[in-house]
Description:
By secondary structure, this protein is an alpha+beta fold. The chain contains 9 helices and 6 strands. It has helices spanning about 5-10, 15-30, 35-40, 45-55, 80-85, 95-130, 135-150, 175-180, 180-195, and strands at about 60-65, 75-80, 155-160, 165-170, 200-205, 215-220. The chain has a 4-stranded antiparallel beta sheet, covered by helices on one side. It has a two-stranded antiparallel sheet with strand order 1-2.
Amino acid sequence: MCATPTDSATASRNTGATAERILFLLKSHGPLKTADLGPLLKITLEATRQQIQKLLEAELIVGQVVPSAGAGRPSQKWALTPAAQARFPDTHAQLTLQLIDSIKLIYGNDGIDKVVSSIEQANTHDYVNACAQATSLEEKVMALVRIRDAAGYMASMQADGESWLLIESHCPICIAAQKCQGFCRSELQVFQAALGQDADVERIEHLITGDRRCVYRVTPHPS
């Protein structure tokens, strides 16, 4: 679920560069074992353990027991705490919530719908233009990744058979999206408009419903 800033996160902003990289890896990859982190960080296992201990003391990570697939002992993965999640900013969260409440109070739900529609139209124009020069579906998805990553969504893509996955490991408007899920519905429509008639897009993971990220599958139409 989305996190809000906590005192623990504010008090522990002085973690080192390697520790910050661990937080980024856990945010983008999900829970990882100590043995997984070492190679990604290109440091020794002992150095990784030292960084893990610092993050545990700062209450920025927590251990999760993973049952063994066979007869072996359970293993442990590290995951972000709400305090760590809060280090990845929700853009202008408090101001956005106040604006949504004010619009709803003055203009009602119709006013909120009009605001969402206006933002959707503006984003559709920008996203369609960003994909206009693409000559393949892969290039279109790459264009969406660039624009979403620049907007703070920690976006990436990966192949999924004949389809492509657009992965967003962070949502910079998460608090606003919880308050008004019209923003999430609007995103799907914007993506579809940018991709055109050659592909369908569906959301298969959704941060708002408890997943750790948002993932969209882009499936080409049969030629």
